[in-house]
Hints:
By secondary structure, this protein is an alpha+beta fold.
Amino acid sequence: MTLIFESDQLALLALIRETSDQVDQPFLVGGAVRDALLGQPLHDMDFVMADNPTHLAKRLAKRLEAGYFLLDDERHTARVVYHDPDGRFFPLDFVQFTGQDLEEDLRNRDFTVNAMALSLDDLTQVIDPLGGQDDLQRGLLRACSDHALLDDPVRVMRGVRLAVQFGFEYGQGMEAAMREASGQLHRTSGERQRDEFFRLLAGPDPAVGLDQLWRVGVFDLLIPPLAGLEKIPAVPDGQQSMLDHAIKTVDTYHLLLEVLTAEVLPEDTVAWPDYQVQAVLAYFASHITAYFSEELAPGRDKAALAYFGALLHEIGRPLAVTAVKEGLKPEDHAQAGAELAYDAAKQMPLSNAESGWVETFVRHHHDLLKLVTDARIPDRRMIYRFFRSTGDAGVAIGLHTLADILATEGENLKPDRWERALSIVRLIFSAWWEAREGIVAPVPLLNGRDLQAEFGLAPGELIGQLLKQLAEEQAAGNIMTKAQARVFVEERLTGQ
C-alpha cells in the first residue's frame, strides 16, 4: 500500500522533525497512518515519543504561531491547535509512550489498523508489528489483543464507527468480545461515549452503525429506555419492532438529507418519493445544507441531533402501551417520550441547549404528521403556533415527518398522501426561510411601552397576554398596521 500525504502535510511533518530533539523524535501513529495508506483525507495527526512531549509541543506551537494546551497532564498529553492552509482545524496531539517503547505502545492500542507508525526520518517505511496493513487490504477489523476492548470499553463504539466508515468486516470473535466489553461501558466517561456516538451519527451510514451498537449491547447502558421498544411491534402483527422502526427512520432521514443536498441524485436513487422530494423541496437546498450544518455545541451539528431525535422519537411508546396502568392517555406518549429523551440527552451528556432541542423534537415529532393524516393544510396561524412551540427545531421536525412516513409505509405509501406531506413541509420551510418576519416571528406593531402609554395599563400579565394575541393575529394576516393593532387592543380591553 502507498502512503499519500498532501504537500502541506509533508511540510508540516518536516517542521515537526526539525523542531524535535534528534535523540527523541516523535512517531506519527494511529488514524493518520491508516488514512494515508487508504488515500483518505487527514483531519488530525497523533504523535508518540519516549519522553514527556510538553516541551516539543510548546516549541512547535510557537513556530506555527498556534495555540497550545495540555489535554492530560497525568498522561503527558499535549495539543497544538493548528489550522491547515485552508483554515480548517487540524489538531496535532503529542503523548508519551504507553509502555516502554514504540512497539509496546502500538500493542496497547485498540485495533491493528490503528496500530501502525511512521518515523519522521523515513515516511516510506510503515512500522507495523501487528499486521495492520494486511488487515487494511483485507478490510478486516481486529483488536490488538484479547483484552484491548476490556482495557477501554469505549473502543467498542469506535470499532463500530470504523467498521461502518470503512466497510470493515469484524475479525473472528470480535462481536462476542464487543458484547462482553460493552457491559463495562460504565467504567468510561460519558463524554467519551458521547463523542464516539456522535462521530458515528456524522458518518456515512448512521443507521447501520446504530443497528450494530444495539446488537453488541451498547444501548443497554447508553440509552436504556430504548430496550422497551424492541418488544413493541411497529404495526399490529408486524415483524418490525418499534426499535427497528426508529433505526429505519434514521436511515430514511439520512437518505432524504442526501437527496436534498446533492447536486445530482445518486444513480441508485430510483424510488419515486425521492425524486418528488427533490422536485418539491430542492428550492431550499442551500438553506437546508446550512441549517443542518449548524452546531449547537462544538463538533455536533443539527443533522446528528436530528438523527438522535429520530432514534428517540418513539421512546415514550412503552408508556402508551400501558396507558391504563400508568394513568396516561395513549396519545401522551410524545409528552412522556420528551421527558425520557431529555434525560437521555443529559446523561449522554449533551449541553442544555442540545438537550432542550432534542426534547422539543420528540415532544412535537408528530404534530405535522397529524395534519397529513387528517388531510389538513396548515394556514398561517397554525404555522405560527407550530414554530412558537418548536422554535428552529421545527425545521428538523418537518423533514422527520417525511422520514417517519417513508419508514412506516414504505412500498405501501400512497402518492396522494406523500404529495400532501410534501406540500405541508414545503409550507413549513417557506415560512421559516421566506416569511419569518411575517409568519414565524412577526415584527411587533405595538410593544409593552405602547400599551402602557396609550391604554394606561400597568406592567403585568395582561400586557403579556395582549402582545401574544396581537402577534398571533399579525402572523395570521389579520392585522397589518399599527392602527389595526390599536383597534384590536381596544376591543380586547372593552371585552374585559
